[in-house]
Amino acid sequence: MVTKKPSIVIIGAGMAGLTAANKLYTATGFKDSFELCVVEGGTRIGGRINTSEFGGDRIEMGATWIHGIGGSPVHKIAQEIHALESDQPWECMDGVSEEPSQPTTIAEGGFQLNPSVVAPVTTLFKKLMAYAQGKLVGDSAAGCEEIDYYTKLPAKALKVSSTSNGGQEKLSVGSFLRQGLDAYWVSKKDQEELKGYGNWSRKSLQDGIFAMHENTQRTYTSAGDLLTLDYSAESEYRMFPGDEITIAKGYLSIIESLASVLPPGLVQLGRKVTRIEWQPEGDEVSGMENGSATATRPVKVHFCDGSNMLADHVIVTVSLGVLKAGIREDSGMFNPPLPSFKSEAISRLGYGVVNKLFLQVEGNDCNNFPYLQMVFHRPDSEFRHKKIPWWMRRTASLCPIYSNSSVLLSWFAGKEALELESLRDEEIINGVSTTISSFLPQLHKLVNSNSHELCNGTANKVGNSHGSEVKVTKILKSKWATDPLFLGSYSYVAVGSSGDDLDKMAEPLPKLSNCKSAGSPPLQILFAGEATHRTHYSTTHGAYFSGLREAIRLLQHYQCIGV
Known about the structure:
Elements: E1 7-11, H1 15-25, H2 30-33, E2 35-39, E3 51-54, E4 57-60, H3 73-80, E5 104-107, E6 111-112, H4 115-132, H5 147-150, H6 173-187, H7 202-221, H8 231-234, H9 252-259, E7 267-268, E8 273-277, E9 299-303, E10 308-311, E11 313-316, H10 320-326, E12 334-335, H11 340-348, E13 350-352, E14 354-363, E15 372-375, E16 397-400, E17 407-413, H12 414-422, H13 425-439, E18 445-448, E19 460-461, E20 469-477, E21 490-492, H14 499-506, H15 512-518, E22 525-527, H16 540-560
Parallel strand pairs: 1-2, 1-11, 2-7, 5-15, 8-12, 11-22, 18-20
Antiparallel strand pairs: 3-4, 5-6, 8-9, 9-10, 13-21, 14-17, 14-20, 15-16, 16-17, 18-19
């Protein structure tokens, strides 16, 4: 009798899935001893990595940054394949992940802010975040006059109104930040009022500058509201040391490198999974619905075209958003449903949406657009510009993707990012044009003109007194929330969850330790992806590490039993 080779199916051809496939396929003796297949629901590989082109520049619709080059596996691969240099311009090729040292910060109404007004609030915000992340302690905190009033905050009132299990109140990053700002105002209550900023007071400007930084933080974390971002878990998140850079030849070059070792046909595109049937601990395989598996193939994967595939092991690398949708009662993605420890972790963790908006501009001075930081009035302020749309008011910046580029970029998070997906190009250009007319009344302005003819055949020009103007000729936006293969962007630890939930996300089913006594085949469903890594969640390198982890788990399992 010929013994069947163990069959491994990987669901998803993104960073986690292809890293796992690469590790398995290149392992010594693997090709002769196992069957391997990667199934991808979309028409391309890469997942939330999607390199594209816009205005002649290479841009990223999804993952953008190598978050620290010291020790990053992504940076190592990029070096090995010579992906860090390119003749074609690329997004953020200047190599700065945050604003330059002297951005142009303008308050609504066209008031350019003196750096002496912006710098204290910016410093405060950065130190508060550094403290929340566990970076500003001990010697590094010594000598900082601000430390006295905000290092005591975690022990005081960093509480959101909701409570977690057992009635214990949880702390949020958002409440911590605002408590810090309140304490700052108390310590500076005798400051003299500012002059020359119209209807802006010193306090309202400081509040607006602080909110600008909060909105940038929302795009970093994907938490639409920082009041939902858990404070305790923030210090567990880890960054690699060194510069944050983008990849000259595009993030997709990393994906293509990982996939290059796999033979043609191993990755199957257009194979969207609808249901995964498996054998929980204590169940007999023969008792599964409709004879769905055999003793050697305990998992059955169903696809949207009605076909199916049997496997011994399935590595699930879909996004947390897809898993959240999959555990709903009306979904039936897993049959039987996932055990409560797994489904509850999926429910508790946060998963948000972040979108990018690119604008192509033309005109005699289009290459001199500033790195614009925008300070907005509060949405309920009587001084706000009534025609600036609500979805623009939590956008922190609008800037060229590199120095002198004619492509501008803005980031959106939360409900504003979701709204962006539903808007027509004309509506977006109108909203951006109105916003910039308020912020840059003395500079060159955008013209409401799209790459296709507007419905009324005219362009709403917002020019300056010298007749110089910059035209938006087309836009490009990401739409991660409404894409059924992702349903959002990346994960965060929400208030009510913890790093323990990320560890639970990584646990395989059934657990290896329980299988001998229960008689259930081990490691039927394994989980990988950025939302399964406790310290590097939300990143491509976190996804990489998770794919490596699950591949090694399977290799070690079979090595132990002599295969």
